[in-house]
Amino acid sequence: MNITNGAKNKFNNPFMSLKHKNFRYYWIGMCVSLIGTWMQNIAQPWLAYTLTNSPFLLSLIGILQFTPMLILSLFAGVIIDKSSKKKILIFTQSASLIITLILAILVWTGKIQYWHILVMATALGIVNTIDMPSRQSMVIELVGKEDLMNGIALNSMAFNLARIIGPAIAGLVMGYAGIAVCFFVNAISFAAVVISLFFIKLKPVEKKPKNNTNVLEEIKDGLKYIYHKDSLLYTVVVLAIVGTFAPNFNVLVPVFAKEILKQNEAGFGILMSFMGLGSFLGAMFIATLSKSGPQKFVIYIVPLIVGIALIITGYTNEYLVTGMLLSITGFFFITFTSSANSTLQLNSSNEYRGRVMSIYTLVFSGTTPFGNLYAGLFAEHFNARVGFVACGAIIIMLMIPLFIYKRIRKVIS
To answer: Any idea where the Major facilitator superfamily (MFS) profile domain is (predicted)?
Structure first.
């Protein structure tokens, strides 16, 4: 009886957050939208690499797309803590629809040039700087604190289910109907989220009144809040390491698929679906354990496993083996990021959550320009194999001393 009760307490229904009507509306809309997003995530780097045949110029798109997050995330956090997240998301999703539609028309008419992709990527980056932390910090208003970790995991499941379906569809669509169709589908899919938001009524959350109206002072206040909470600070530092050097697949995989594995568009899309499958299973794993709360083991050890998986991927020659290793990498990467997200939100008070999640966006996505540049330079001057190995090796090199420091500090204290 005790064993049975223990199992019930440890494992739970991975879809339990869907009992909340508001979250159901939001989640269904996101599922539709994310398939379109992943179709574009596959079409855009393939288009850019086809136009330039340069891994470095390919990495430059990622750099410009994520640089706004690096510069503006701290300001976005203050805006989110003061504003309605629902209204923010209606604006950001509508803006993304318009930007993507312009890009689709340029590709469809044959007028697309490399610089067009750079401009549109930058515009989407600016929009996502507000959109991403708003979506992350709104989950608690949709499901409450008790189901927060499960809600975060379900969001990750939706993202990675789309990562399975979207790339496979994109590969076939690019091969038979043309790249432009992928962009048109994504533009239309943003409407699904906008429509779902009109049916949502957010749960009120209590916030302590603040007299501070100076934006820079509020940013400083949020940074001090993180610095003085060990659980937040350590998670943010590890997230910065993993977020910078692990998710450079948009730079490395298309080059690896084309130059090493000799694959076409469909082969590239299916490779990314392999990774999506692993990521989906990782999110499902976290969802079933959400009642137990975030596990410290995942924050401390899993980044090392991600680094090792990236290194091994760089040494593969077989298409199926590469796909399996990308699945393993995806599984552990999402296991880590979902746990880090939950750790930050569950240890943050309501009045600071927007700023904490803006830091999450900053260190997870805002550092992507550095990671893309790092991976792109290795792929450009050597090859994609070296790019994978270099990304995995630096994660391990940075995590080991950090882990040792954490253990020593724990013993001393």
So the answer is: 22-409
Sign, CA dihedral 144-192-135-202, equals negative
What's the pLDDT tens digit per position in 356-402?
A: 888 887 888 777 778 888 888 888 888 889 999 999 999 999 988 88
- Contact by Cβ (8 Å): 40, 183: yes
Q: How many domains does the chain have?
A: 1
Q: Write the pLDDT tens digit of every residue in 84-143.
A: 888 888 999 999 999 999 999 999 998 889 999 999 999 998 998 888 888 878 887 888
Q: Does 93 fall in a domain?
A: yes
- How many residues are recorded in the chain? 413
Q: Is 98 left (phi over 0), alpha (psi -120 to 50) or beta?
A: alpha
DSSP string for 136-155: HHHHHHHH-STTHHHHHHHH
Residue 294 has pLDDT above 80, yes or no: no
Determine the structural domain holding residue 313 and report its residue range: 13-201+214-412
Let me know if 8 is exposed, middle or buried by CB neighbors in 10 A (0-12, 13-18, 19+): exposed
Contacts of 88 (CB under 8 A, 6+ apart): 79, 80, 130, 131, 134
Does 4 reside within a domain? no
Nearest-angstrom CA–CA distance, 150 and 16: 7
CATH number at residue 381: 1.20.1250.20
Note whether residue 206 is domain-resident: no
Report the alpha-carbon distance of residue 46 to residue 89 in Å, rounded.
29
User: For 223-233, how does the pLDDT look when each residue is reduced to its tens digit (9 = 90+)?
Assistant: 888 888 888 88
Q: Are 170 and 113 in contact (CB under 8 A)?
A: no
Task: Provide the 8-state DSSP code for 205.
Answer: -
Q: Is residue 333 part of a domain?
A: yes
- 87 Ramachandran zone, left/alpha/beta (phi>0; psi -120 to 50): alpha
The burial class, CB within 10 Å (0-12 / 13-18 / 19+), for 51 is middle
